[in-house]
Structures are given as structure tokens and as C-alpha cells.
Amino acid sequence: MLIRMNLRFFLQTFLTDLLRFKGTIDAGKEQSRIGFPLKFREIGTSKLRDYLKAALYELKLCDFDVVGIHRNSVKDCLQIVLINIKEEVAFELGLRQRAETQEEDQQIEEQAAAAIPETPVDESITMQEFEKHLLQYDGISTDRRPALSALGQDIPIYIWYESYPTHSGEGYEGRVSRVSADSPYGAASLNLTNIRESDQGWYECKVVFLNRSPNSHKNGTWFHLDVHAPPRFVVTPEEVIYVNLGDAIILNCQAEGTPTPEILWYKDANPVETSATIGIFNDGTELRISNIRHEDIGDYTCIARNGEGQISHTARVIIAGGAVIMVPPTNQTKLEGEKVQFNCEAKALPGNVTVKWFREGAPVKEVAALETRVTIRRDGSLVVNPVSADDSGQYLCEVSNGIGEPQSASAYLNVEYPAKVTFTPTIQYLPFRLAGVVQCYIKANPPLQYVTWTKDKRLLEPYQTKDIVIMNNGSLLFTRVNQNHQGRYTCTPYNAQGTQGSSGQMEVLVRKPPTFTIEPEGMYQRKVGETVEMHCDAQEAEGTQKPSIQWQRRDGTMLQKNRVRVNGGNITIDSLRRSDFGFYQCVASNEVATIVTTTQLVVEGTQPHAPYNLTATATEFAVTLSWLPGYSGGPDYKQDYTIWYREAGVSEWSTIPVTPSGSTQVTINRLAPGTTYEFEVAGKNALGEGMMSKIITVRTLDVGLPAKNQATSTPSLSPPEDSAEETYTVRAFIGLCDLTVCFFEKWQLDWTSAVIIIKITNQKL
């Protein structure tokens, strides 16, 4: 142990104590007062050196705690040493009386403080460093050892000093002592018991006389202690090592003992034979295997032996495998309130399998509705107790041991419960002379079977009542509302599990719906880049709320907010583009009803819109295509077409221009029989290429088979949202149109294109 002390404290204390003795030093030279540095070389007596050496040794005893003073009381120990040496030095040098007044005592302390050198004034130094600082003024060598030490150790393992307790170094307590007085060995010989392997090494015995200078080159006797010990492992490979074929591994096996142990390697009880992929290195401590093969898999044993014994350690090398689900979860149906358990058993090498569970993609522990009712057991199974109606869904088990990709399996939980009403609005409205619905908000699993209704506390029989129908979701549909439909209604849903009860009473009021006061024009025609403003407004009936007005596209496309402004019931679209072409709806809504009016926006001066209703007829070597034209871009623009086609699986497309100009039918020849092709059509006008049609896939016939229509998309007479044509062109296939539901103003045969041209009014086909 090295105790650090403050050099200023020791020097000032030492000098102050000496200066408090008034007197002179007679060294054969002129009288001089004691000062600092102590000019020991000018002091003729050798006694001062001896006492100083004795003081330093006693300071070492302070450091090693052999004077009975705790290590934390080093200051007290130093003061005792200083008092002792002060008395001896004072007697030897003839220093006489002490300072007699407080002023003299203060002067002495100031002289001592002033005498301390600047370096190293405030350093905190070790005892060894302090010894060098103090003895440099006397030329005394600091190279001396404690009574008995082991080679390489700074602290003695044993010190005997007359009149003081003995000192045992750390780790030697209770095991070292001087030999007994009647021992045939020398009186300073050491008795070491309970020998340890760490005791091996060199030992030195020194005898130090405190009243004489040490003789460094003669003082000291050296001994070497050999401790024989059986082998013990300090490094071993893991007991199980998981590898993949082709991997490289190093098995490290190191042992200590005296004599040094020999390391041997065995595989499956046979000595390891080195090869191009197997080698033993570093004095046998490393077994290296590169490019592991099946024959390298097995048990490897490391043996360490010497004259004192033998030990062994075995490591098993195993081919690693990712986790595999042995028992996957299965679909289950439970009643609300029951407990459900999904099993998920997995095996893997290594077997540190981690199991995770997810519901609809989210970890089950993070689903707020589940966290208090879900448990993942140690065997990987998932338990939900009790289940609720909202727990139905897909549950996925994912297993992994860190090798390869995680494996997963899923199962569906179907939670059944009696049909129930989830919400009861206190008031519902029906629009007078329009169709209206009284909602019954139902949740049911298994599905709803039927709903009973009451009106004014009487059972309502919708199937026997004119203008009333029960919808599939259990709500009441009134095909034409009148005042008699007003009243108080309740609904009671049923399924295979029964019912959880009726709804509360719902007050159904019949009110007039809102009406449009301003409707947009039937069509707006604008050119690209222009602005269009469409107007719409509506008013409420007496006793109802003012309707809100919104604009939307009929096809559901979102309005572009950066170019669209809605002010009240009016909508303005700036910088018109081809994509703005289509149908727009003004929607007016209040608590009674929602009414809609529709207008069409035609944007002229654009490339053609995409052709639609593309169909095909195939033979062995040709395919005939026909289509309906998209909007041409305006009345001033003529539209032509280009066919794009390719064999399925080929990246490059081939093109064929359609002739004559404007034709909507073409035949592609020189195709391979029994081959699948992809086709699409693009229109173009003077402004450039237009949008492409949807791709259809057609297979040419094998040789000898009759031709047939192979269009992959079902033909429809309904034009696309962006079509402004009033005349629709349709292939005349048998069964395409049921004449009982078609309303024609006129029809004519166009011999050039071999199609029937139909003008349709009022009803789509």
C-alpha cells in the first residue's frame, strides 16, 4: 500500500519542531542558526544521519501499519516519529531551551514556513518519493529493501522489527512467521505455510541495522520457491458451438500448472489428425478448423496434463438450424367471455427460441384493448382471457433463434356473441316524398339473421307494409316517405347466438328535404389553361337546418386544393388541365336529406384521353382488336391510334399505326400460334400522344381450334368519366345487351367498322 502525504505538512512540522530549540550547531565552522535546507553534509556527527535513517524507517512502518496506528491516522504516526527524532537530535546536537514566548514561537513557525522550497511545495507525494526528497540533502542512497520481499513486489511480505508488531504482506496473513527459537535454521529464517501456486517465485531476506549505513551489494539472501500444481483451465471453448457448413472456428484451450501442462486434442475419443483444413497452433492451445464439412461435426476434447495430474474439457460442434414451428396455431371460434389459447411450439439449434405474437400486424402487448388480458407463456403459447367481441382477427406467431429468417404461422380468432345494438340516435329524420332510411346500428357475429321493429309500441310488419323494406343491415328503407311514417321506433337484432336486447326509442320525424335554388349548367367547356366557375346553392325547408354545400368529383378523385377554390356553393378551378376533365357533383346536406346535382367539365385543347373497352378476337396467327375512343381533345382535333403489343414475358414493345385514320379496329397478323400476347392502344392528335388504354392479355389459338373472343375485360356501354361523346360504339356480340332494359332513340349500322352505333338516353346499359 502506498500512502500519499503532503510534503509541505511534513517539512514545515519537522523544521518547526527543530527550530523551537534555540541553539547552534558546532560543525567546526562558524556559528550559524539552524535553517533549511538542513546542511547535513556540514554536520560533523554521523549520529544525525543515523537518527534520520531511523526516522525514515519508522515512517515506512507508518506506511505499512505495523506500529498499531490505523492507515487513516498517518498524520498522528508522523507526529510521534517527529517527536522521537526531535528529542534525539536535540540531545545529540546540544540544542538547549525551548522558545519562551508566544512571539518567539510565532517567529519560529514563520521561519520554518519560509524555508520550504518552492518545488515541490504543494505536491502530494508517496512515501517513497518523500524519502528521496529528504535524503538528497545527505547523499544517502534510497536503494534498500524491507526485511523480506518477493521478487517484483514493492511491499515486503514479512517485516520483523524489534519492539513492534510483525507485519505480513497482503495475501500472506496467517501464513508467514519467523521460525521458532529452537529451529536448526537461522533466527531470521521464514516459515511459510498453506502453500499456494501463486507463492512460486524468488524471495529475498534482508537484515537492516538502523544505526549504520546499509551495504546494498552484500545485504540480501535470495531463494527460489518451486510450487508443483496440477493443471487447471484458464480458457476453454463453449460446451456447445453452433456452426454452418463452410464456417471457420477456433477452439481455444489454455491451462496453467507446474510443470507447464501439455495440451492434447481428441475428436470423438480419437486424436485429432491435422489436415489442410484442420490445424493445431500456439503450443497446442488452439485447434483451428476452416471450411467446416459434415465430417468435422462432433465432440472435441482438450486434455491438459503434467506430472501432477490431468484434466479435460469437451466442446460439441453442431450444425446450427433456424427455428422451425412444429405445432402452429389453428383457427378458433369462441364465445365472448371465454378463454382462448393459441399454441406455437418451435424447435431450433441452438434452442434459445424467441416467440413473438402479433394481432393484425401489431405486437399484442402494444394493443391497448388486449394488454391487460393477454399472456405469452414460456412454451410460446398465447392466452387471451376473457375474449371480447373486438378481439376477432388474425393472430400471428413469429419464432426465431437468431439464425436465418424468422418463421411465422397465423390463425384467425372468431369471437361470436349475440346480436346487439351499438348506438341509438334519439332523433332520426325522413325526407318527405323522397326515399329515406331509419338506421338500426347493429353489430353481430355470426351474421345478422333478422331484425324486429316496433312503431309506437306496436310490432311493425315491413313485409306487409307498402313503401317499407328491411335492408340487409337491418335498417328500414322507406321508398317514398309520407307523414304516416312519423313515429317512435325501436329495433331488436337477432343472430344464431340470440340478441343482447332492443335499441332505445328513436323519434322519427318527417321533414321536407333541402332544395337547390341554383344548379350548375349541364356542361362547361373550357380550354387548357383557362378558369372555370361553377355555381350551386340550396335552401332548407321550414323547421330544418340550412344545408351545407360541398363539391366532389363523381369518380372519387380528390380535388387539387392549390388550383381549386370553393366559396359558399361556388367552385372555381384555375389553370385547367386534361386531368380536370370529368363529372362534378354539388352535394347539399342537412339533418333531413342529402341531394346531389351533376355537371360535366370538358377541357379542350389536350392530347386524347385513353381509349376504353378494348376487346380482342384471336385466331392461330392473328388478333383483331377493337375499342371505344376516348375524348379526342376537342372538336378541332382528329384522333388517330397506335397499337402497342408484345409477347408475354418480353420487355420490349412493338408498335403498329392504325389505318385508315380514325379507325377503332385493327388486325395484327403474323403472330405465333398458341402464344400469349399483351396489347394496349394509345390515341394521338395534333397536340401529341394521348393516354394509354388498359392492357389486355390474349392467347392465339393452337392450330386447328376455332376462333373466339378472348377479351380479358368485360365490354361495357358506359363511357368513361372523361368521355363527352353522346354516341357510344359497341361491338355487336350476341348477348351483349338485353333489349328488355335498353332504351334506344335510334340505331344504325356502320358498315365501315362493322359495329352497331347506339344512342342511349336516360339509362346506362
From TrEMBL:
Keyword Transferase in record: no
Domain of life: Eukaryota
Alphabetical list of InterPro entries matching this protein: FN3_dom, FN3_sf, Ig-like_dom, Ig-like_dom_sf, Ig-like_fold, Ig_I-set, Ig_sub, Ig_sub2
Domain Fibronectin type-III: 610-703
A Gene Ontology term for the protein's cellular component: plasma membrane
Single annotated GO MF: cell-cell adhesion mediator activity
Keywords: Immunoglobulin domain, Repeat
SMART domains registered for this protein in UniProt: FN3 (SM00060), IG (SM00409), IGc2 (SM00408)
Domain Ig-like: 231-318, 322-414, 418-509, 514-602
One of the GO BP terms on file: homophilic cell adhesion via plasma membrane adhesion molecules
Protein name per its UniProtKB record: Fibronectin type III domain
Organism of derivation: Popillia japonica (Japanese beetle)
Lineage of source species: Eukaryota, Metazoa, Ecdysozoa, Arthropoda, Hexapoda
